[in-house]
Amino acid sequence: MTTLWDTTGTAVVQALAAERRSGGAVTSGLALTLVVVLEEKDTAEVEAAVATAAAKHPMRVIMVLRHHIEAPQPRLDAEVSIGGRHGPGESVVLRMFGRLALHAESVTLPLLAPDAPVVAWWYSETPEIIAHDPLGVFADRRITNVIRDSDPAASLQQRAVDYAPGDTDLTWTVITPWRAALASAFDTASSPAKSVVVKGNPVDPSAQLLAGWLSSRLGIYVPVERAEGKYISSVTLDFEDGRNVQMTNEGYKLLMRRPGQVDTLQPFPQRTTGDMLAEELRRLDADGPYGEALGAVSGQSGLNQRPAVRKHIWHDPALAAQEG
Amino acid sequence: MTDVRDETTGSGDGADSERQFGGSADADMQSQQGDIVTLSEGPPHAISAGSGPKLPPMLRSNPLRDPGDRRLPRVPEPCALVVFGVTGDLARKKLLPAIYDLANRGLLPADFVLLGFARRDWGDGDFEALAKKAAKQYARTDWSEEVWSRLSGDIKFVAGSFDDDAAFDELAATLDELRNSHGIKGNAAFYLSIPPKLFPTVLKQMERTKMADNSASGGWRRVVVEKPFGHDLESAKQLNALVDDVFTAQDVFRIDHYLGKETVQNLMALRFANQLFEPVWNANYVDSVQITMAEDVGIAGRAAFYDATGAARDVLQNHLLQLLALTAMEEPVEFTAEAIRTEKLKVLRAITLPVDLGRYAVRGQYDQGWLAGERVVAYRAEQDVPPDSNAESYAAVRLGIDTRRWAGVPFYVRTGKRLPRRVTEIAVLFKKAPHLPFSHTDTEELGHNQLVIRVQPDEGVTLKFGSKVPGSMMEVRDVAMDFLYGEAFTESSPEAYERLILDVMLGDATLFPRNEEVESSWRVIDPLEAFWQNHPPELYRAGEWGPKLADEMLARDGRAWRRP
Fold first, then answer.
1. Predicted model pTM
2. What is the pLDDT of residues B184-232, one digit of tens each?
3. Which of B16, B110, B489 is opposite residue A264, by nearest beta carbon?
4. Around B200, how many Cα atoms within 13 Å sit in the side-chain half-sphere?
5. Which of A55, A215, A289 sits opposite B39 (nearest CB)?
6. Topology of domain B259-556, CATH
7. Residue B319 is among the residues annotated as catalytic for this protein
8. Most buried of A76, A232, B34, B174, CB within 10 angstroms?
């Protein structure tokens, strides 16, 4: 591991090259570069998640921590390591102070793995407009995490407003096991669904996305009804032939109840943020079903037809605060 | 059956290839998805229930399955997996752990039953205890009591011997009961984890009870057969006729676990997804191909089977010829089981044996020696092996493929036990450049360009080519460029058995050889075996790369074995 204080982007690039040579890993297949935007307090969680994901995808991780935009002197501190606590891949931690934080791309661009896709991940505090953050503009895939925002439901609506193909949110990743279980339940259905009800927390983004996905696929309105629990507690399916399936979240198990049949209990995998990040990194193209589900949640149409490439919009938070 | 250890080092991330090799199920869905309208117009609250487009009440169209939705795993339909011979080694070490791993990964249908059949005075609970112990000991993924508790209610056992009519009637009745109580809809896969000599008895019983009948069961009925698929062409034909007669040919799944390996599937991606390799993948550019499957272990307690079988029947006939077929086949017209099997079959039928078998077919048997720092005994000194045994533990042969693409390119194929290390690889050696502008001394260390597909261990691809040595002199030397599957996807990949059992339940036959392939392979092996009848194997010291004759065989052609 190399630590650089008050340094320059060029020195960081050289330090990474030196680490690669001395580590003996001269040829290593990098599938992507992951740029994580985080705050100092999130470091431990992000490091754990990145280590898990790096075990499944060979990648270079660039962590960007922005400090004190108002500081008079710009400054860059960096830490370069290969195969350390951030998993088997390469990692660069960049701490940016002062106005440099608004020009983070000047340090990160030369550090991207050549011709490999770039994924940007905002661990918390999703930018309201992704185009304001230059790191989100050159990324091919953008992962947000609205559950960590102060008002997740409003943030999810904003994600639809700001959506471009290639965006996804971890509140969508969370419901993959639910979606897989529901899809299996429909495998054996012999008639269309008459009504579907999601029960849970109506303002939970995951519950909303699940209902949105179901309504976009089934062509019927799927409500989220309030029930115990912070997330999704159950889904009830009524089919036109009178068949009825109830799926209930029992902690890390899913109970499926059908009249006239033995109840089945399926494990619901206990997934960490790292597991979900790994799922996200598996596909580096746009997630159409997410766009449709988000469209159904927000009532916006044609989300997937929007241009996939964003144009950077200059935004100075200091200035915005003054005017604000 | 090779040593089970060759299954344990998988790596790579299986899901991508699962998608890629998904077969026709997705295509079916796609065609039926056309009439689904997404509701992105207008707020969702404006849509009243039932105002959406009416879906045709078709059984197979699942509105929640979207080909563009690549997060959802392929989960089989409700079904039962019936295992004959649950107490055997294979069932305990491979099959039962694979079921647990599938459950742990959420890939088993909600309605699933594991039904064991064996001659034990057991109840459901006894079988469950055995299955739990096996799964706990050999499972690849982390152990979770919750996953097991989900499975444990779905584990049933029927006791009886294979010639007992009453036991099979009970089995059939149990399957019928489960149809309602567990919602398995008459779907069942029968896994025959039993010696081949018992096949006729079991299959006749299934025929008698109509268990193998798709229409009588109202669902699908499939059978899974393990190698050996016979011991020569004649016996293979008999076995195939028997199995295909009781089940229909497309419901028979022959497991060759090598084909479940990620790297083997990656071979198809490498060849057919890239533009780079295909233009040089022919006799114009390829000098020769070497396919090696080496094991460091001996026969470890399998003397009775191995002494009657030998390396050629045990490994060459199935694994190596399948690897050869995948290496040499033409591009399938589409990525479906039928198209791929058709191309493999064409190659297998085009294989030619050398005219002079005495010079180009070598069999060997290991003598005592030292391997990995330990003294090991000779094959003939192994437990239960007759001291005058002439079974081979090593086989190497030069094969040709009579097609326009491969005419004149030798395929050197070898397998052996007690070789220095466990390795399986396919090496494509390219011709040397027709003219070198460098002086002879500059390129002394330049060999053939090579593309090596490492099947196991260290799954990946190596490209070997000449490069200038740094310095003021022009000196060219071979360097290797490595793609490590295990480095690119460090997470351990699904076990071959997991993948193959899942495919059986999904009805995807892409990775299973069909009867004609097995028969064509025996057509290659039978003349070899006939020739070797009168030629005792040459001894090689344990821990060496095979008998001297094998080295001479290549030296005769001006080549040498690659040291894997």
1. 0.81
2. 888 999 999 888 888 888 988 888 888 888 888 888 899 998 888 888 9
3. B110
4. 7
5. A215
6. Dihydrodipicolinate Reductase; domain 2 (3.30.360)
7. yes
8. A232
